[in-house]
């Protein structure tokens, strides 16, 4: 299964019925997380953190995990970066106000959960800017806001100075594709 390029309005992106389960998506990405230097314990703690944040904050667990894979490949020791607005972002979800542990692996559940909670709260804020409904359309639009802070409703691949393929990439991840599928593009 190759990587598909999606663009246009949210309606041009795949429906939730095509998304894999959280377990399927997570299992497909375990080897990539381990290749970052994560320990097996780190990977297990990411699972725990995603489930807890999904329940506590009210965000789809598959979406949380796919943001993690897009932003950090699940690398708990990823450093901080700067968003298009010049603000520092860090942690598994590269979110503002998230703790970061550059170069460190073998983190505690509390440290990993803090990163996932910060990113999930940020994404929930994007959902609330829209209509806060758990639909594919709202999620895709909120993903554009998460990445760029702006949204062109007619083209979610308009990066507004951020990553143009961000929403498309996560749509692929939600369907069970991984980074190794990127080289095998489908039209």
From TrEMBL:
Cited Gene3D superfamilies: 1.10.530.10
Stretches assigned to the Transglycosylase SLT domain: 50-155
Positions of the UniProt region annotated as Disordered: 153-187
InterPro entries named among the record's database cross-references: Lysozyme-like_dom_sf (IPR023346), Transglycosylase_SLT_dom_1 (IPR008258)
Comp. bias (Basic and acidic residues): 178-187
Name of this chain's protein: Transglycosylase SLT domain-containing protein
Organism from which the protein derives: Phialocephala subalpina
